[in-house]
Amino acid sequence: MFENHQLDALPQHQKIIFKPLAEKALLHAQLSWLLFYIPLMAALAVVCFFNHAFAAIAQTPLLIALPSILVISLLYNIVSIRLKGIAMREHDIAYRKGVIWQQVTVLPLARIQHTEIHRGPLERKLGLASLRLYSAGGMSADLNISGLSHDDCKDIRQFIQKYTEARQTSVHSSAPLSDNNELVG
Amino acid sequence: MNNIVWQRVSPWALGYFVLHFAFRFVKDGIFNLLPILVVFVTQVQNKLFWGQVAVAIAVVALLVYSFAYYVNFRFCISDEHEILLNKGVFKKERLTLNFLRVQNVNITEPFYFKPLGLVNCIFDAAGSVGQEAVLPGVTTQYAEQIREQVLAFKETQQADELQPRTEDTRPNAMEHHLALTNKEVAKFGLMSNMAILALAALAPFMNVMLDFLEEVVINRLESFYQQEVGMLVDAAALAVFSLLVVIVVIAVLLSILMSLIRFYNYQLYFQGGKFKRIAGLLERHQLSVSFEKVQSIVIKQNLIARLLKRYTVQCFQASSGGFAGAKSKQSLVMPVLDVEQVNQVCQWLYPWLDFKALNFKRVERALLIKNMFVYALIPSLLFAGLCMMSDTLTPAYGVLSFLLLSVLVYLSYSRYGYYFYQHEGRFYGVFRSGMIGVQYRVFELYKAQSTHSTSTFLMRKAKLKSLSIQLAAGIVSLPYLTTERADEIINFTLYQAESDLRSWM
C-alpha cells in the first residue's frame, strides 16, 4: 500500500464475525412494511370501487402486481434481515447490511460525536430499538441500526461512553491502545 | 458567571443588521413569496401602486425588525472563556460558545464600515456551520484583542494536553506569502460555475422569461435582421442565436464580477501552521485557518481551468452539513493557481507532495468493463433503438453515441487513482478522480471518521470491493479495488484513526 512503509500485521476487519439482529427484528421489519403497504392497497381498492373507469383499466394489473410486490417484499425482508449484522470490537463498531449491494461500515468509537436511541410504538411493543451513531461530516447518522433489542442498544451506548472516557484519560496519560480484538457476546 | 457585563455593539451595526436581514429575506424568503407574486401578477389590477405599497411595507418591516434586533443584541465575554450572545426579536436566543469550540476568529471589513474603522468579528464554531457568532460593528482593535484572547486560551489548553506528535515539524517558522493579481482572480470567474448556478436559479422562470424575451427582443431583432440581412439566413434563428450569445456573455461577466467581489486583491500568508487570507472587494474578509484543523485538501482543475492551465486548491475543515456547508463557510479557497504556485503551496504543507509526479495506482479494469456496459453500451443501444423508430434519425447515431460515451467512460476510469505516503511518521492518502477535469484529494489517514466497503454478488465473485472513507469534510471513494487491497486500506485507515491519539478536529 505505501511505497515507503512496510505495514505490520493489522487488526483484520474482514474477519469480523457479525452478530445477527434481535429475534424480533424480522417481525418488526415485516409489520412496518405491512403497516405501509396495507393502507396503500386499501386506498387503491377504494379508488377502484368508486371509479369504474379507473377500475376497468387498472384492476387486473393491480390484482397481479400488488400481491406479487407484497410477497417479493416480504421475502426480501427475510433475506435483508438475515444478512444484517453488527459487531463490537475494542475500538470500533461494525455493521453489515444490504442484499444486492452489501455494505460493511466500520465506525471507530473515538470518532463518535453523539449517540441516539429511537423507539417507535411498534419497537416499544416488541422490545426493540434503533441505534443511531453520528460522527462528523456526515449528512445524517453514520450508522442507523434498527432491529436491535433495547437492552443491546443501552449496552452499546454505555460501552461507547466508557470508551470515550477511557480514551480521554489515555490521551492525557499517553497510554498505548491495545489491539482491536473482537468482543465476545 | 457572576461577572457578566453585557455590552452592546456600535449603533452603526444597525446598518449591518439591515443588510443582513435584507439579504436573508432575498435568499431564504423569496421562494416562499412566489405564490403571492403569482397572485399579484395575475390578479392585481393597479400593479404599480400596490407594488409600491408592498415594497414600502417590506422596507419599514425590515427597518423595525433590524432596530428591534439591534436593541436586543447584547454580547459578553465571560470569565469562563465563553462568548455569550443574547439575540432575537420574537424568539429570544442565548448562544453560548466556549473558546475551545471556536475554530476560527475571522475579521471582515465591509465597505460601509471602512470609513468608521469598524469590522465584523466572526467566530466559527468547530464542526458547525449554523453555529457561528457574529459581532458586527466592533472596532478593529477590539476584534484583534478578542481574537488574541481566544487563540491564546486555545493554545494554553492544547499545550496542557499531551500531544506527542502535534508539534509542527515542518520548517514553517518563516512566513510564506502568495498574492494573486486581479487578472488571475478574474480567470476564476471563467473557471467557476457561478454563472451556471445563476442561470440554474433562473430555470423556474425560464418560460416566463422566454415569452417576455420573445415579445420584447427576439421579434424586434428578427425584423432588424430581416431588414439588414434580408433572406440570406433565417432571421428568426439568427435573432435567437444573438440573444443566447448575449445571455452567455452576461453570465460570464457576472461570474467574473462575483469572483472579483470575493477574491479581489487576494493575499495569502502561511506561518507557523496557520493560514491567513485577506481578500474581497466590497468586504475585506480576513480568514484564518489552522492547518491542523484542515481535514482534506483538494486540488482540482475543470475543463476551462485546463485550457487556462490553472488549478483551484481548497482546504476543507470539518463541517456538520456535508460539502455544501463546507464549501461556503469553512473552506479556504485558493482560486487560481498555476502549477508552480500549486507546488509552492504543497511545499508549505506537504513537502513530499509533487502531485503531478505521484505514481498513482489504478483501480481494477473491471470498472472500465462495467461502466462501458452500463453507461456506454446500454444507453447507446436504447438510443439506436429510438433512432430506428424515428423517421429522421439513423441507427448510426447509436454508434456515434457509443463512441462518445466510451471515451468519457475511459477518461473517468483512467482518472481514478490512489497513492499512499508516509512522511515523518504521518500517513497520507491521495485519491485522484475526474473525467474531463481532474481532482486530487489529499488527507491524513488518522482523520478518517468511518470506512465503508461495498460489493455486489458479481464483485465478490471477482474478488473486488469499492471503498469509501468518511472524512469530517466529505467522503472520498475508490471503486473496484481487489478485495485484498481494499481491506488493507480500510484496516490501516482504521488502525490510524483508532491508535493515533492526536485530536482530529
Describe this structure in words.
The complex is a heterodimer of chains A (185) and B (505). Chain A has two domains: 25-81; 85-172, PH-domain like (Roll). Chain A contains four helices and six strands; from the N terminus they run ααββββαββα. Chain A has helices spanning 25-50, 52-83, 121-126, 150-173, and strands at 85-88, 92-97, 102-108, 114-118, 128-134, 143-149. In chain A, the strands form two sheets. Chain A has a three-stranded antiparallel sheet with strand order 1-2-3. A three-stranded antiparallel sheet of chain A has the order 4-5-6. Chain A is elongated and about 75 Å long. Chain A starts with 24 loop residues before the first helix and ends in a 12-residue tail after the last helix. The mean pLDDT of chain A is 85. With 505 residues, chain B is an alpha+beta fold. Chain B folds into four domains: 7-160, Pleckstrin-homology domain (PH domain)/Phosphotyrosine-binding domain (PTB) (PH-domain like); 172-278 and 290-349, no CATH class; 365-411, no CATH class; 416-505, Ubiquitin carboxyl-terminal hydrolase 26/29/37, pleckstrin homology-like domain (PH-domain like). Chain B is 47% helix and 27% strand. Chain B has 15 helices and 21 strands. In chain B, the strands form four sheets. Chain B has a seven-stranded antiparallel sheet. Chain B has a seven-stranded antiparallel sheet with strand order 14-13-12-18-17-16-15. In chain B, strands 1-2-3-4 form a four-stranded antiparallel sheet. In chain B, a hairpin with a 3-residue loop joins strand 10 and strand 11 (283-290). The longest helix of chain B has 29 residues, at 235-263. Chains A and B meet through strand 3 and helix 4 of A and strand 16, strand 19 and helix 15 of B.
